[in-house]
């Protein structure tokens, strides 16, 4: 008897589990007396009979079906296992985790803009998050006709409407068509709300939507970059100077060409102007101390002029101070400061 009991018993579990699988259906087999139900972490098990939900089990572990599961099923509580007969039901295993999916526009989305009559061609990329939110709706719309459902199936469904939603929300929130990244958060929020409303019809909730970047055609991107550079530097003249300096330092402007000659001439003129400015500044600094010294010492020269003159008339001695500028004399015939003859 024990031999036959083990022969007909089986295990109900998610046999083909994959991380990218949203649900998998255990079906077309009978559940025998003594069978076990195994629910792993991140899974829910839903018992179905003729497409109707009999019970939902969320706790992970191993359970005896006839003693721990059947008593909780809605319409099968009175079902009694026979020796050679089982209970033919379906068990839907659902992945309960939140999925994160990368998305990107397959072709440029033409956004209406006054600057370009044909529309601004824009590509975008980012991520979105979703999880199963309504088991009954999921079974009614998807699981009733499918054996399994993958993340890729949801991605295809979402990307099929994403271009229209990008056009809608970029046109609404993208006040500056050349700086869409500034409004990326508001654009993403609007798209998430619309996607959530659409995916609700199949029992899936959109828990997040992010726009990582907007990409323009190369010629438009170059124009945006150049305009931003002009604004950062302040004016065109400075931009040209910085461009010339960058060209010289990077080696792109080399000898033999008109650009190199012009660069050399400009650098020479700048160096000459800088040298002249420094020379003028040094001369001004040297002139100021002499003027200050003369103004301070002239009164002393006036006070001592008589003494110096009388001394020189008597014994032909040199005056101690110059009668012209008042500078101290150490016996020289001429003033070391102004050149006045002292002898």
Automatic annotation (TrEMBL):
Low complexity: compositionally biased ranges: 280-297, 304-314
Domain Putative zinc-ribbon per the UniProt entry, residue ranges: 322-342
Residue ranges of domain SPFH in the record: 27-230
SUPFAM superfamilies: Band 7/SPFH domain
Leader peptide range in chain numbering: none
Region (Disordered): 280-329
Protein name: Uncharacterized protein
């Amino acid at each position: 008897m024990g031999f036959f009991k083990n022969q007909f018993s089986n295990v109900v579990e998610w046999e083909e589990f994959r991380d990218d699988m949203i649900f998998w259906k255990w079906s077309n087999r009978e559940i025998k007396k003594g069978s076990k139900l195994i629910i792993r972490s991140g899974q829910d098990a839903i018992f179905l009979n003729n497409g109707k939900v009999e019970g939902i089990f969320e706790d992970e572990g191993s359970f005896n079906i006839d003693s721990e599961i059947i008593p909780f099923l809605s319409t099968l509580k009175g079902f009694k296992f026979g020796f050679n007969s089982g209970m033919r039901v379906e068990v839907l295993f659902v992945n309960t985790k939140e999925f994160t999916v990368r998305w990107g526009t397959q072709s440029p989305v033409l956004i209406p803009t006054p600057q370009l009559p044909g529309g601004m061609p824009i590509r975008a990329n980012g991520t979105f998050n979703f999880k199963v939110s309504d088991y009954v709706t999921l079974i009614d719309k998807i699981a009733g006709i499918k054996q399994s459902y993958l993340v890729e199936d949801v991605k295809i469904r979402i990307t099929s409407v994403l271009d229209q939603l990008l056009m809608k929300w970029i046109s609404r929130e993208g006040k500056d068509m050349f700086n869409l990244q500034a409004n990326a958060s508001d654009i993403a929020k609007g798209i998430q709300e619309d996607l959530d409303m659409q995916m609700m019809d199949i029992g899936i909730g959109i828990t997040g939507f992010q726009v990582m970047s907007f990409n323009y055609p190369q010629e438009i991107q170059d124009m945006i970059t150049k305009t931003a550079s002009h604004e950062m530097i302040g004016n065109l003249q400075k931009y040209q100077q910085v461009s010339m300096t960058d060209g010289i330092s990077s080696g792109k402007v080399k000898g033999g060409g008109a650009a190199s000659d012009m660069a050399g001439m400009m650098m020479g003129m700048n160096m000459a102007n800088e040298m002249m400015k420094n020379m003028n500044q040094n001369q001004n600094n040297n002139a100021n101390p002499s003027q200050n010294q003369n103004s301070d010492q002239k009164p002393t020269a006036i006070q001592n002029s008589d003494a110096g003159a009388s001394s020189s008339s008597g014994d032909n001695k040199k005056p101690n101070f110059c009668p012209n500028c008042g500078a101290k004399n150490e016996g020289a015939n001429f003033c070391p400061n102004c050149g006045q003859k002292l002898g």
